[in-house]
Hints:
Elements: E1 16-29, E2 32-45, E3 59-67, E4 70-76, E5 80-88, E6 91-102, E7 104-113, E8 120-121, E9 124-127, E10 130-140, E11 145-147, E12 156-157, E13 177-181, E14 189-190, E15 192-194, E16 197-209, E17 214-226
Amino acid sequence: xxxxxxxxxxxxxxxxxxxxxxxxxxxxxxxxxxxxxxxxxxxxxxxxxxxxxxxxxxxxxxxxxxxxxxxxxxxxxxxxxxxxxxxxxxxxxxxxxxxxxxxxxxxxxxxxxxxxxxxxxxxxxxxxxxxxxxxxxxxxxxxxxxxxxxxxxxxxxxxxxxxxxxxxxxxxxxxxxxxxxxxxxxxxxxxxxxxxxxxxxxxxxxxxxxxxxxxxxxxxxxxxxxxxxxxxxxxxxxxxxxxxxxxxxxxxxxxxxxx
Length: 259
């Protein structure tokens, strides 16, 4: 049995109470793993110099610890003044400065995570001083690559319908897996492996022999485990002419010359 809890009485520096919700989308690409993240930070409690505005107006400067090996290329959001990644005692931090204090901060970030065959810590952010940090991680495969089945094995699975209204994937996005966490997943790891496929084909032929020609009808049945091929090629015997090709999923066909 695994239990997790949080208390709204936990406070950040100098009486500022912070909480956040996030959605991280990891998409495998040729250059590595593209990262898109949405973060919503809520602030309550008394103000503090350098951290929050006077009279409890909200936070103006926040720091996020970078988790995993990834580079941030873009940070955007309403009221954002500046952002920068700083190194301190071997730890990298994302420092966000706002134009004026705010009680709610919405950020959109993009970056790239390096991938290899070995398991590595998942990328993410951890808000300094936050008492509650909940979020979701979506994984999307590439045509030839996928996240291993053991990736994020310590997190619970989630459904797209369970995403908060303020954290939504693009309409066209179809993640292969979606996870939820109740605290920053600092111990979770991901690994990338090649997508494996196994194709079995059964072929039957029926022919009619005539004095000047041979009519042949060929029927093939495919069974695929894994990624299904989109293109099928066969080598025709010399002098053969194809009259028709059909099938439930056939989009087009052609006969080409090869050397």
